[in-house]
Amino acid sequence: MSLSRLHSRTHRRVLGHVAKHTGV
């Protein structure tokens, strides 16, 4: 199992969501 891969994907998704929310 590649937890690192999943974490990276989730992190990127969260970052995008935050960026959209913050309006960057």
From TrEMBL:
Source organism, top-level taxon: Eukaryota
Region (Disordered) residue spans: 1-24
Protein name: Uncharacterized protein
Organism: Gossypium arboreum (Tree cotton)
